[in-house]
Fold:
Amino acid sequence: MARKDRNLETSGANSSSRLPSKSVPETSDSADASKPHRRRSGAGRPFAGLYLVATPIGNARDVTLRALDVLAQVDVIACEDTRVSGKLMVLHGIATPLLAYHDHSAERVRTRLIKRLNDGETVALISDAGTPLVSDPGYKLVRACIQNGVPVTPIPGPSSVLAAAVVSGLPTDRILFAGFLPPRSAARRRTLAELAAVPATQVFMESPRRLARSLADMAHVLGDRPAAVARELTKVFEEVRRGTLAGLAQHYRSQGAPKGEVTVVVAAGGPPPAIDAAQVERLLGAALERLSVRDAVAKVAAATGLPRRQIYDRALKLKRGAP
Structure:
């Protein structure tokens, strides 16, 4: 998860959680380490390939034993920020070299990593917090590995998306993760209009300073649905506030931006009402009197649940005066 959590809770992190370093000898049934992509079994080094390792979203003790084992045994750890990941490694006594792999270095570093993987080395990919590839560009490395025949192995663990969803009190039988919404209101409302008719609980990430405005836009476009705002999950000041979108928007307007990482969970909407062509025309006509075509289409799409393309085509005809 590409969440910039720079304040790992260290309660309980001690030497008892540390695993052997990379100097641990391989077991007798281990394969030849010099042979690319060869599986090596037992308690020694993992087989060659890329490992997608989930790391804590707050509390450092949430890391799994398997994750610690892999991180201690691979040849290199690719991470977003070596300073952030370095703190976790120090807490757990892991001395594996760290290599920065982020938006600005990804293309250059990816080539180097693929070469090392093709040579039979082991690489772990982590994000600053949570599960890698969730709202970060790590998928490009995974895609390159697949194209090069390099094994890719997930090491599951913490995820703010699932943690927020299960604690929200909303249905979890069908979940849509929608990532970060656009920072500007007009673009945000257009995106929300596209999601309005999705029959699933929706999970968003949001900046604390934009939270109140985003919740207000959600209420405007999606309707005043039940929702939950989860922040600082697994940390000392963890908080889950439940209510409706409009009520939550009002709370954060009056109280100001909260601190910490924020995840918003929104209930699915009900089935759209039956809409006839005449009603769509009336709604579009009223919206076009005060809004641009794009914003009018977004508003009517959210209100009717009809496809944006269908409404957009009709809006253009109305603007041209077509019958």
